[in-house]
Amino acid sequence: MNYEQALEKCKKYGQEHVFKYYDELSEEEKKGLLDQIEITDFEILDSVHHRDELAGKGVISPLTCMEIPEIEANAAEFEKCGLDAIKAGKVAAVLLAGGMGTRLGSDNPKGMYNVGKTRKLYIFECLINNLLDVTNKAGCPVHLFVMTSEKNNDATVSFLKEHSFFGYPGEFVHFFKQDMAAATDYEGKVYMEEKGRISTSPNGNGGWFASLDKAGLLDKVHEWGIEWMNVFAVDNVLQRIADPVFVGATISKKCTVGAKVVKKAARDEKVGAICLEDGKPSIVEYYEMTDELMDAKNEKGEPAYNFGVILNYLFYVPELERIVREELPLHIVEKKIPYIDEAGNPVKPEEPNGFKFENLVLDMIHKMDSCLPFEVVREKEFAPIKNKTGVDSVESARALLEKNGVTL
Ligand code: UTP
């Protein structure tokens, strides 16, 4: 794209301020900016002016979960079915590690955070240890795909290599990068992170399968005969990955997606609740929960929307391929966005100063015909690290790790 075309594109979307420092840039930087303008989707940015319209939900009704007593009663059968699938190479794991972890506030990728006290124990290490429990039991590794972003890919790859993948076989680990989206101020004007570069942010975890495909890895998924992909977040240090009981239960119930859920700690806890929306599986976000939904009861007289998702899903690959080109809803999220000020100096804001634009993996659930919500014991499998202290923090996760016998 040449200068005139780029200027025209920016003018169309009211973003011509990106050229403010153009004359000061080197030829290489100029080209970099023009290339960035070419690939940037400015159209989505206008949605900051229509935020209310984006939130629409259909008719919500309860979706029955498989609860712990039922799981325990069938655990041996489910586990055998899951282990058979793992041994046959049909199960892979997908680590979503493209996020910025702004709430934790570390400059490094979140997985590099050390949760140890008397020794080093990194978040990535905890996750690999959890996966090794399963692969040791199965007697074979599973393919582990790791999604990074342009912002943290190099650091993630070199850290894991330096640590020899914490004992996981390196030839079974495959990295791919997700896409980025421009980040804006509250008026929808893009920020500049450098004089020749628009501020960007990873575009959410919802594009993971499309990005894996774009990276050429879907061919490998076919070649290796992978049928199920267990997607999980980087920040839950206790979660079981490629959990054979969960895999077996989802397969046995003939569902196209399984979702690990926990009983909510409070009716207004900040987790998305699994439900049906217009008769299809869905997740109602905590900020969408009305009093009516919080107080609703199911036929057993229990709270109807009492199970929260923990970002650990098992997807059936043919279904992922069916939906890969379908659009997902856009989420506009308030964030701290680094930028350069009027004088061209870099600023790292302490408070949110604008929006980033994301697609979310939870919206993929609504595109599936059948979902098995699978209850896990909260204290054993849910220790998310979002903040340094307080709720869902390094502190709370450390306490839970110790409770589960992990030496820190
Ligand atoms: P979060 O919703 O906690 O977002 O991600 P975040 O960006 O990591 O953290 P904050 O909000 O800035 O503090 C949940 C999971 O989804 C991944 C994260 O790495 C984490 O595993 N994720 C999030 C991506 O892979 N890509 C994204 O664009 C966003």
Task: Give a quick summary of the entry.
This protein is α/β, with parallel strands linked by helices and 408 residues long.
Q: Which hetero compounds are present in the coordinates?
A: uridine 5'-triphosphate
Structural class: alpha/beta
How many E strands? 18
Q: Estimate the helix proportion, in percent.
A: 25-40%
The CATH topology of the domain at 67-254 and 311-359 and 377-403 corresponds to Spore Coat Polysaccharide Biosynthesis Protein SpsA, Chain A
**Radius of gyration using CA atoms only:** 22 Å
**Measured distance between first and last alpha carbons:** 53 Å
CATH superfamily (homologous) name of the domain at 67-254 and 311-359 and 377-403: Spore Coat Polysaccharide Biosynthesis Protein SpsA, Chain A
Mean pLDDT: 95
Q: What is the CATH architecture annotation of the domain at 67-254 and 311-359 and 377-403? A: Alpha-Beta Complex
Strand content: 15-25%
Main sheet: strands, sense, barrel: 7 strands, mixed
Counted by DSSP, the helix tally is 14
Structural features, described:
- The protein is an alpha/beta fold and 408 residues long.
- The chain is built from 14 helices and 18 strands.
- The protein has a domain at 67-254 and 311-359 and 377-403: Spore Coat Polysaccharide Biosynthesis Protein SpsA, Chain A (Alpha-Beta Complex).
- The strands form six sheets. It has a seven-stranded mixed β-sheet with strand order 4-3-2-9-13-10-18, with helices on both faces. A three-stranded antiparallel β-sheet has the order 1-11-12. A two-stranded antiparallel sheet has the order 5-8.
- Strand 3, helix 6 (153-162) and strand 4 form a beta-alpha-beta unit.
- The longest helix is centred in the first third of the chain and has 20 residues, at 68-87.
- Bound molecules: uridine 5'-triphosphate.
- Uridine 5'-triphosphate is lined by residues 96-103, 147, 178, 202-205, 233-235, 311, 358, 386.
- Uridine 5'-triphosphate (UTP) binds at residues 96-103, 147, 178, 202-205, 233-235, 311, 358, 386.
